[in-house]
Write a structure and sequence with these properties.
mainly alpha, hpI Integrase, Chain A, extended
């Protein structure tokens, strides 16, 4: 299949507004690349020759001009939205919607919020097209059996904190307080642009400490292996001295060795990527709303939870820490519970019989008193 080429030079060369907008995301390469692609595709589809004339500051238009201009923009947006949803699936339409929305707002093309909301609701849904799976505890044990102290600590850190792999890779010693039973993790900025506070389990802490004790050995091995290819020095302030692609390769190797590696036939992406550890956290943490909070998901309760003290957060996480244990498990007391429930049922039945006998005894006593009175 031939890869389509888009005329980036034409639009970036002629549009100052587009260049200034993309400069805002120069430190976020993936976002910059996605926004550039989707905006250029939009302008090409509509055959826009001069982007800077097409995008106007609506504050400078009179009422009649503004209505006419915004009606035209709305028609263009809806036309492209319908075409995009017809041709693509997954998150693609929503990435474009985010790009064009931010581009228009930055250039003061305002009063289109109802259009954005309407299009978002009329889409096919914001979901990933790759079929994904969440591993069971038994499958995780198989995967971790092929780990070393570094990879074991890395992926247990991700699994019990609920974070994305890129966030874990960027973790420094400044982000973590190891003095607590459930070490406190604090990120001042995440993908969602706000701070996140989370924890890891005592089990993960023990594994992490074992790795830290021999961390220098792993750094030295990695330094020697890639010295002739690496453009930048390893950041030794990071807890795990590697980049995201290295972490993903290590995880894929572990999954392959465990015999669990498989690809989605449509997207050719693995069912068990590193994100499955985040899904495991979200599906196993005992309280769904607190799980969303610790993982950094945006929820209606976030504002309330952010007011809580670290001690309160410690308490809430501690309640559910055993839900995330992989190597250390609680004793199986299901048989004991069943026996207790059976005994409780016997006690209830005996109490009913006692109550019935007491009623009969009371009736007999009452009859004897009556007979005695008659004599």
């Amino acid at each position: 299949m031939t890869k389509r080429k888009y005329n980036y030079e034409k639009y970036l060369g002629s549009s100052k507004k587009l260049r200034n907008f993309l400069d805002m995301y120069k430190d976020r390469l993936a976002t910059n690349r996605a926004y550039k692609l989707h905006l250029v595709k939009y302008f090409e589809y509509l055959k826009i020759e001069d982007v800077d004339k097409y995008i106007k500051d609506t504050r400078q238009l009179n009422k009649k001009e503004k209505i006419k201009y915004l009606d035209g923009i709305e028609r263009d947006l809806r036309k492209y939205w319908i075409e995009l949803n017809r041709q693509t699936t997954g998150k693609t339409p929503y990435v474009w919607l985010s790009a064009i929305k931010m581009f228009l707002i930055m250039n003061k093309t305002l009063e289109l919020d109802d259009v954005y909301i309407s299009m978002q609701k009329s889409g096919h849904g914001n979901y990933a097209i790759t079929e994904t799976k969440t591993p069971t505890r038994e499958e995780l044990l198989r995967i971790f059996s092929y780990s070393n102290p570094e990879s074991k600590a890395l992926f247990m850190f991700q699994l019990t904190s609920g974070q994305r792999i890129e966030q874990v890779i960027e973790t420094t010693f400044d982000n973590i307080d190891m003095t607590k039973n459930c070490p406190r993790i604090y990120y001042s900025k995440t993908k969602q642009k706000y701070w996140v506070k989370t924890r890891i389990t005592p089990e993960a802490k023990k594994i992490l400490q074992e790795y830290i004790d021999q961390r220098e050995k792993f750094i030295e091995i990695r330094r020697k292996r890639g010295e002739h290819l690496r453009k930048q020095k390893l950041d030794k302030n990071r807890l795990f001295c590697m980049d995201k692609s290295t972490a993903n390769c290590i995880w894929s190797t572990m999954v392959k060795n465990a015999g669990l590696y498989a690809l989605d036939p449509t997207t050719r992406k693995p069912y068990y990527g590193t994100h499955c550890l985040r899904r495991y956290f979200l599906s196993h943490f005992g309280d769904e709303t607190w799980g969303d909070f610790f993982s950094g998901h945006i929820t209606a309760r976030n504002k309330e939870y952010r007011k809580y003290s670290d001690e309160r957060l410690d308490e809430e996480y501690f309640k559910h820490k055993d839900d995330l244990n992989i190597f250390e498990t609680q004793p199986d007391i299901s048989d004991i519970r069943e026996k207790i429930e059976e005994k409780d049922q016997v006690i209830v039945e005996m109490q009913k019989r006692i109550d019935s006998l007491e009623d009969k005894y009371s009736d007999l006593l009452h009859e004897l008193v009556i007979k005695k009175g008659k004599k």
